[in-house]
User: Which sequence fits this backbone?
């Protein structure tokens, strides 16, 4: 194995609070053919062996004594049955592979790994609701700070998703000296049965956590931003209008208007009733960022695909106009022919990332 890839892999796992120190043997063990790259198959094979090594009971599952990292155990145990199946165990590390494979070519190469060497990630519990711990992931740049900070709110239709959705965006921003806080919140699914009040309360509570812990993590609350995509764009945009410190907002294909949804297929009437508590005009307006804009709103960047049939792009156009009418500065980027999920399509993701980086650097007064 090439020395550079070995050193980079070790350094990457040193920077990961979830993994701790990665030995030279572990780095070389992943690169099965010694070509200096780690493929998804090599990565998965390594953790298949690791699963079998941990499974001392040889029963096909890991309990908390066999897998002692409590934080990762909670993340992996999706059905909360107190054990990890092989698939649940693999999903923990598959998400990390996607984090490191920045160009999405199915390989972890030395140059990609070295890009995140300055980023230290830490997962903490920011709230406990009805016995459920809510976590957030902090991506800190190298240096002493203080750091501008952005809270990232994932999408998933209010019913799914987690903080890993924005890992590449958040960690890429650390290269510009911008800290990221990627949050999890209660969802409108069978497990959480969350309403808008629950989910938005979690977003605002995470922001309060950032505010309260600014000194500890060297966050600069005078340079504070919020970003979100799709359903997370809806929640984050509401939060941005309710957060006085927010001076920068980034929204990707967000649902900013629940009253006038145009040709949107999301959300369904049933989900609206379940999540918002009603479909009358007053409820829909109270639940819509476009109807809740504060005076002097934060500088805003909106990105939306023109062929998005999940959330009508006209909503982003009207939201931009409404923000400007309240004295806001807005850049609206309409991605020609793009469908929904622009943050997850490789070419569009690169464009979204470049636009976001330039925008945040400008608002936060950073020379890129």
Assistant:
């Amino acid at each position: 194995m090439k020395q550079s890839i070995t050193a980079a892999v070790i350094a990457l796992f040193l920077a990961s609070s979830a993994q701790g120190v990665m030995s030279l043997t572990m780095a070389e063990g992943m690169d099965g053919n010694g070509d200096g790259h780690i493929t998804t198959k090599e990565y998965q094979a390594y953790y298949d062996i690791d699963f079998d090594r941990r499974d001392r009971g040889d029963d096909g599952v890991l309990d908390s004594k066999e897998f002692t990292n409590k934080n990762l155990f909670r993340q992996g145990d999706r059905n909360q049955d107190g054990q990890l199946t092989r698939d649940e165990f693999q999903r923990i590390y598959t998400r990390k592979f996607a984090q490191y494979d920045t160009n999405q070519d199915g390989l972890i190469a030395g140059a990609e790994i070295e890009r995140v060497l300055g980023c230290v990630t830490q997962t903490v519990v920011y709230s406990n609701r009805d016995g459920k711990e809510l976590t957030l992931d902090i991506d800190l740049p190298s240096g002493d700070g203080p750091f501008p900070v952005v809270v990232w709110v994932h999408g998933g239709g209010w019913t799914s998703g987690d903080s890993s959705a924005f890992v590449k965006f958040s960690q890429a921003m650390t290269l510009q000296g911008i800290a990221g806080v990627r949050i999890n919140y209660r969802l409108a699914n069978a497990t959480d049965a969350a309403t808008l009040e629950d989910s938005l309360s979690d977003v605002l509570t995470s922001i309060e956590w950032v505010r309260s812990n600014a000194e500890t993590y060297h966050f600069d609350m005078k340079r504070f931003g919020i970003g979100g995509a799709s359903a997370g764009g809806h929640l984050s945009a509401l939060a941005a209008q309710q957060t006085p410190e927010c001076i920068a907002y980034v929204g990707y294909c967000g649902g900013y208007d629940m009253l006038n949804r145009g040709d949107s297929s999301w959300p369904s009437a049933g989900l609206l009733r379940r999540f918002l508590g009603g479909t009358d005009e007053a409820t829909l307006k109270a639940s819509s960022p476009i109807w809740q804009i504060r005076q002097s709103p934060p500088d805003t960047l909106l990105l939306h695909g023109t062929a998005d049939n999940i959330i009508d792009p006209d909503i982003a156009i009207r939201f931009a106009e409404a923000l400007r009418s309240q004295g806001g500065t807005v850049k609206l980027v309409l991605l020609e022919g793009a469908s929904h999920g622009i943050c997850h399509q490789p070419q569009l993701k690169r464009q979204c990332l470049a636009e976001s980086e330039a925008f945040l650097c400008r608002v936060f007064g950073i020379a890129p």
